[in-house]
Amino acid sequence: MAEVCRTALVTGGNRGIGYAVAALLHARGHRVIVAARNGAEARTAAERLGDGARGATVDVTDPDAVAKLRAAVGAVDILVNNAGVQLDWGEQPTGVELALVDRTLEVNLLGAWRMAQTFVPDMVRRAWGRVVNISSGTASFALGLPGACPAYSVSKASLNALTVLLARETEGTGVLVNAINPGLVRSRMRPDAEQSPQQAAEHIVRAATLPDDGPSGVFLRRDAVIGW
After folding, report:
1. 19 is catalytic
2. InterPro entries from the entry (predicted)?
3. Is there a contact between 10 and 21 (Cβ–Cβ < 8 Å)?
4. What is the pLDDT of residues 104-116, one digit of tens each?
5. Cα→Cα distances 17→42, 84, 124, 172, 204, Å
6. Which of 19, 113, 119, 152 is catalytic?
7. What kind of fold does domain 7-226 have according to CATH?
8. What is residue 28's DSSP assignment?
9. Taking the domains of the chain in order of start, what are their residue ranges?
10. Best CA proximity match to 59, nearest among 111, 121, 116, 132
11. Environment class of residue 188 by beta-carbon count within 10 Å: exposed (0-12), middle (13-18) or buried (19+)?
12. Which pLDDT tens digit goes with each residue over 30-59?
Protein backbone atom coordinates (compact mmCIF):
# COMPACT_ATOMS: atom_id res chain seq x y z
CA MET A 1 0.00 0.00 0.00
CA ALA A 2 1.39 3.41 -0.95
CA GLU A 3 2.07 5.94 1.78
CA VAL A 4 -0.51 8.67 2.26
CA CYS A 5 0.89 12.02 1.17
CA ARG A 6 1.53 14.13 4.28
CA THR A 7 2.89 17.60 4.92
CA ALA A 8 6.21 17.45 6.75
CA LEU A 9 8.15 20.30 8.35
CA VAL A 10 11.87 19.80 9.00
CA THR A 11 13.73 22.43 11.01
CA GLY A 12 17.39 22.89 10.18
CA GLY A 13 16.49 21.31 6.87
CA ASN A 14 18.90 23.24 4.70
CA ARG A 15 21.88 20.90 5.22
CA GLY A 16 23.22 17.80 6.92
CA ILE A 17 20.81 15.40 8.58
CA GLY A 18 17.90 17.81 8.14
CA TYR A 19 18.34 18.06 4.41
CA ALA A 20 18.76 14.28 4.09
CA VAL A 21 15.50 13.77 6.01
CA ALA A 22 13.69 16.35 3.88
CA ALA A 23 15.01 14.73 0.69
CA LEU A 24 13.90 11.24 1.72
CA LEU A 25 10.44 12.42 2.79
CA HIS A 26 10.12 14.23 -0.53
CA ALA A 27 11.28 11.17 -2.46
CA ARG A 28 8.54 9.17 -0.75
CA GLY A 29 5.88 11.54 -2.00
CA HIS A 30 5.33 13.86 0.93
CA ARG A 31 5.00 17.63 0.77
CA VAL A 32 8.07 19.00 2.51
CA ILE A 33 8.74 22.35 4.15
CA VAL A 34 12.46 22.95 4.53
CA ALA A 35 12.81 25.44 7.37
CA ALA A 36 16.01 27.17 8.49
CA ARG A 37 17.26 30.40 10.02
CA ASN A 38 18.83 31.23 6.67
CA GLY A 39 15.77 31.55 4.47
CA ALA A 40 17.78 31.80 1.26
CA GLU A 41 19.52 28.50 2.00
CA ALA A 42 16.19 26.91 2.88
CA ARG A 43 14.67 28.00 -0.41
CA THR A 44 17.72 26.80 -2.36
CA ALA A 45 17.49 23.42 -0.64
CA ALA A 46 13.79 23.17 -1.46
CA GLU A 47 14.47 24.05 -5.09
CA ARG A 48 16.97 21.19 -5.27
CA LEU A 49 14.26 18.82 -4.04
CA GLY A 50 11.81 19.97 -6.70
CA ASP A 51 8.02 20.13 -6.92
CA GLY A 52 6.26 19.53 -3.64
CA ALA A 53 8.96 21.20 -1.55
CA ARG A 54 9.15 24.76 -0.28
CA GLY A 55 11.64 26.70 1.76
CA ALA A 56 10.76 28.78 4.79
CA THR A 57 12.60 31.03 7.19
CA VAL A 58 12.41 30.33 10.91
CA ASP A 59 14.51 30.99 13.97
CA VAL A 60 13.13 28.51 16.50
CA THR A 61 14.29 30.77 19.35
CA ASP A 62 12.08 33.62 18.14
CA PRO A 63 8.37 33.32 19.07
CA ASP A 64 7.36 35.84 16.39
CA ALA A 65 9.29 33.96 13.70
CA VAL A 66 7.63 30.67 14.65
CA ALA A 67 4.19 32.32 14.63
CA LYS A 68 4.90 33.77 11.18
CA LEU A 69 5.96 30.34 9.96
CA ARG A 70 2.67 28.83 11.14
CA ALA A 71 0.73 31.61 9.40
CA ALA A 72 2.70 31.03 6.20
CA VAL A 73 2.59 27.23 5.98
CA GLY A 74 -0.52 26.26 7.93
CA ALA A 75 -0.97 22.95 9.73
CA VAL A 76 1.50 20.12 9.21
CA ASP A 77 1.25 16.38 9.74
CA ILE A 78 4.88 15.62 10.52
CA LEU A 79 7.27 17.74 12.57
CA VAL A 80 10.96 16.85 12.70
CA ASN A 81 12.70 18.98 15.32
CA ASN A 82 16.19 18.80 13.89
CA ALA A 83 17.50 22.36 14.42
CA GLY A 84 20.20 22.32 17.06
CA VAL A 85 23.56 23.63 18.23
CA GLN A 86 26.59 22.08 19.91
CA LEU A 87 28.73 24.85 21.37
CA ASP A 88 30.65 23.34 24.29
CA TRP A 89 32.68 20.36 23.10
CA GLY A 90 35.49 19.59 25.53
CA GLU A 91 34.02 21.59 28.41
CA GLN A 92 33.22 20.39 31.93
CA PRO A 93 30.10 21.26 33.97
CA THR A 94 32.04 23.40 36.45
CA GLY A 95 33.82 25.38 33.75
CA VAL A 96 31.43 25.82 30.85
CA GLU A 97 30.21 29.38 30.31
CA LEU A 98 26.58 29.61 31.34
CA ALA A 99 25.93 31.90 28.38
CA LEU A 100 26.67 28.86 26.17
CA VAL A 101 24.33 26.77 28.30
CA ASP A 102 21.59 29.37 27.88
CA ARG A 103 22.02 29.44 24.11
CA THR A 104 22.12 25.66 23.86
CA LEU A 105 18.95 25.22 25.87
CA GLU A 106 17.21 28.01 23.95
CA VAL A 107 17.76 26.24 20.64
CA ASN A 108 17.79 22.53 21.47
CA LEU A 109 15.07 22.44 24.12
CA LEU A 110 12.95 25.59 23.99
CA GLY A 111 13.10 25.79 20.19
CA ALA A 112 11.65 22.30 19.86
CA TRP A 113 9.14 23.04 22.63
CA ARG A 114 8.04 26.22 20.86
CA MET A 115 7.58 24.33 17.59
CA ALA A 116 5.55 21.65 19.35
CA GLN A 117 3.29 24.21 21.03
CA THR A 118 2.70 25.82 17.65
CA PHE A 119 2.09 22.75 15.49
CA VAL A 120 0.99 19.83 17.70
CA PRO A 121 -2.46 21.26 18.56
CA ASP A 122 -3.34 21.14 14.85
CA MET A 123 -2.30 17.49 14.76
CA VAL A 124 -4.50 16.69 17.74
CA ARG A 125 -7.49 18.45 16.17
CA ARG A 126 -6.96 16.48 12.94
CA ALA A 127 -6.40 13.21 14.87
CA TRP A 128 -3.09 12.38 13.17
CA GLY A 129 0.47 13.55 13.62
CA ARG A 130 4.07 12.51 14.07
CA VAL A 131 6.74 14.41 16.00
CA VAL A 132 10.37 13.32 15.96
CA ASN A 133 12.84 15.06 18.24
CA ILE A 134 16.45 14.58 17.17
CA SER A 135 18.30 13.68 20.35
CA SER A 136 21.72 12.20 21.07
CA GLY A 137 23.52 9.36 22.80
CA THR A 138 25.10 12.02 25.03
CA ALA A 139 21.63 12.51 26.55
CA SER A 140 21.28 8.89 27.67
CA PHE A 141 21.31 8.13 31.38
CA ALA A 142 21.49 4.45 30.40
CA LEU A 143 24.87 5.20 28.82
CA GLY A 144 25.98 7.38 31.71
CA LEU A 145 25.64 10.73 29.90
CA PRO A 146 28.84 10.16 27.89
CA GLY A 147 30.79 12.90 26.17
CA ALA A 148 32.46 16.13 27.18
CA CYS A 149 29.70 18.55 26.20
CA PRO A 150 27.63 19.25 29.33
CA ALA A 151 25.31 21.92 27.91
CA TYR A 152 24.53 19.81 24.87
CA SER A 153 23.97 16.68 27.00
CA VAL A 154 21.62 18.50 29.38
CA SER A 155 19.72 20.09 26.50
CA LYS A 156 19.15 16.75 24.79
CA ALA A 157 18.26 14.97 28.04
CA SER A 158 15.71 17.73 28.61
CA LEU A 159 14.44 17.24 25.06
CA ASN A 160 13.93 13.58 25.90
CA ALA A 161 11.89 14.58 28.95
CA LEU A 162 9.79 16.89 26.78
CA THR A 163 9.22 13.99 24.39
CA VAL A 164 7.72 11.89 27.20
CA LEU A 165 5.52 14.74 28.40
CA LEU A 166 4.19 15.47 24.91
CA ALA A 167 3.52 11.78 24.32
CA ARG A 168 1.52 11.55 27.53
CA GLU A 169 -0.49 14.65 26.66
CA THR A 170 -1.32 13.38 23.18
CA GLU A 171 -1.97 9.75 24.11
CA GLY A 172 -4.98 8.38 22.25
CA THR A 173 -5.24 11.35 19.88
CA GLY A 174 -3.54 9.82 16.85
CA VAL A 175 -0.35 11.80 17.48
CA LEU A 176 2.91 9.92 18.15
CA VAL A 177 5.88 11.73 19.69
CA ASN A 178 9.31 10.13 19.89
CA ALA A 179 12.98 11.00 20.31
CA ILE A 180 15.73 9.41 18.26
CA ASN A 181 19.45 9.06 18.73
CA PRO A 182 20.73 8.86 15.15
CA GLY A 183 24.25 7.97 16.27
CA LEU A 184 27.41 9.63 15.00
CA VAL A 185 26.72 11.17 11.61
CA ARG A 186 29.21 12.63 9.16
CA SER A 187 28.90 16.41 9.35
CA ARG A 188 30.90 19.60 9.76
CA MET A 189 31.11 18.79 13.47
CA ARG A 190 32.02 15.13 12.93
CA PRO A 191 33.69 14.73 9.53
CA ASP A 192 35.23 11.46 10.74
CA ALA A 193 31.91 9.70 11.42
CA GLU A 194 31.25 6.58 9.35
CA GLN A 195 27.47 7.04 9.02
CA SER A 196 26.25 9.35 6.27
CA PRO A 197 23.34 11.77 6.73
CA GLN A 198 21.39 9.67 4.22
CA GLN A 199 21.83 6.54 6.33
CA ALA A 200 20.67 8.36 9.46
CA ALA A 201 17.71 9.81 7.56
CA GLU A 202 16.36 6.32 6.82
CA HIS A 203 15.75 5.71 10.52
CA ILE A 204 14.45 9.20 11.24
CA VAL A 205 11.95 9.01 8.39
CA ARG A 206 10.71 5.65 9.65
CA ALA A 207 10.07 7.29 13.02
CA ALA A 208 8.32 10.18 11.26
CA THR A 209 5.99 7.85 9.36
CA LEU A 210 5.16 5.24 11.98
CA PRO A 211 1.93 3.30 11.57
CA ASP A 212 -0.97 4.18 13.82
CA ASP A 213 -0.10 1.37 16.24
CA GLY A 214 3.51 2.54 16.52
CA PRO A 215 5.12 3.54 19.80
CA SER A 216 4.95 6.97 21.37
CA GLY A 217 7.07 8.45 24.13
CA VAL A 218 10.11 6.27 23.47
CA PHE A 219 13.81 6.80 22.76
CA LEU A 220 14.92 5.18 19.51
CA ARG A 221 18.41 4.20 18.41
CA ARG A 222 17.97 3.64 14.72
CA ASP A 223 14.90 1.36 14.73
CA ALA A 224 15.19 -0.07 18.25
CA VAL A 225 13.76 1.29 21.48
CA ILE A 226 16.54 2.03 24.00
CA GLY A 227 16.70 3.11 27.61
CA TRP A 228 16.57 6.78 28.47
Report:
1. no
2. NAD(P)-bd_dom_sf, Sc_DH/Rdtase_CS, SDR_fam
3. yes
4. 999 999 999 999 9
5. 14, 11, 27, 30, 9
6. 152
7. Rossmann fold (3.40.50)
8. T
9. 7-226
10. 111
11. exposed
12. 999 999 999 999 999 999 999 999 999 999
